[in-house]
Write a structure and sequence with these properties.
mainly beta; 12% helix
Length: 243
């Protein structure tokens, strides 16, 4: 009888051990499930830093303002939005809405576009010197101007439910213009250039990646360029990828 009880106990122990091993295996598979995709705008999938909290950057008549953001809450600012307006009695009129990447571990989704810029050299009255003005092709400019082609970086505009990964975007660092206009009216050195792809009255998603401490995080910021002097930031999501 004692041998029979010992044998049954051994079978039970082996069964319980197998169940524990299966449970541990199942838990391991759950913890280490590969997840390298972010769905833009999905508030249930990502950690929300802001949700419907309006960050408003409004420009005074002359001067500028800026807003720095710590995207991953590590006490290091990652991005800076800035908005500026410069005027002068001589005809200077430049408006800018820009984004600058501050942290070397951060990049944003962007693309390069080649814009034809027309360059023309004016002579000052009395022949005392010359000055060069630029125009975006398509504007009115002198017939004897010379055309040059420059590469400009534009920020990609993400959309709701768009799937992004660390490799399916062109990730870039540097400074970018959401909007730039140089409409200088000085008769000697005038210009007319308008650049940027965000001034359409709609909110778009700015996409970013942070590669730091052996972790990759993807995220989005919902931004609306209300006008050439007003920027609104509505919400942001960030997600740590699992490999």
């Amino acid at each position: 009888m004692g041998k029979l009880i010992s044998f049954v106990s051994l079978i039970l122990l082996l069964h319980i051990g197998c169940e524990r091993e299966q449970l541990q295996t199942a838990n391991t598979e759950t913890i280490f499930t590969i997840d390298t995709t972010l769905e833009v705008g999905n508030v249930n999938q990502q950690q929300l830093i802001w949700n419907n909290v309006l960050q408003h950057l409004d420009l005074p008549f002359v001067g500028g303002k800026q807003l720095e953001l710590d995207l991953d809450l590590d006490l290091i600012n990652d991005l800076k939005f800035s908005i500026g307006f410069a005027v002068s009695p001589g005809g200077l009129n430049i408006r800018t809405v820009a984004l600058t990447v501050l942290d070397s571990a951060c990049t944003i989704s962007a693309f390069e576009q080649y814009d034809s810029i027309v360059s023309y050299t004016f002579s000052y009255p009395g022949g005392t010197g010359t000055s060069t003005a630029n125009y975006l092709a398509g504007n009115t400019y002198p017939a004897n101007a010379t055309i040059q082609v420059f590469s400009n970086q534009y920020i990609s505009t993400g959309s709701t439910q768009q799937l992004i990964t660390p490799t399916n975007q062109l990730w870039k660092k540097g400074s970018f213009n959401l909007y730039y206009r140089n409409a200088t009216s000085n008769p000697v050195n005038n210009a007319n250039i308008t650049l940027g792809n965000w001034l359409d009255g709609q909110a778009h998603y700015l996409l970013f990646k942070i590669d730091k401490n052996n972790q990759i995080k993807l995220g989005w910021i919902e931004v609306k360029l209300v006008s050439t002097s007003s920027l609104e930031i509505y919400s942001m999501g960030i997600k740590t990828l699992i490999y």
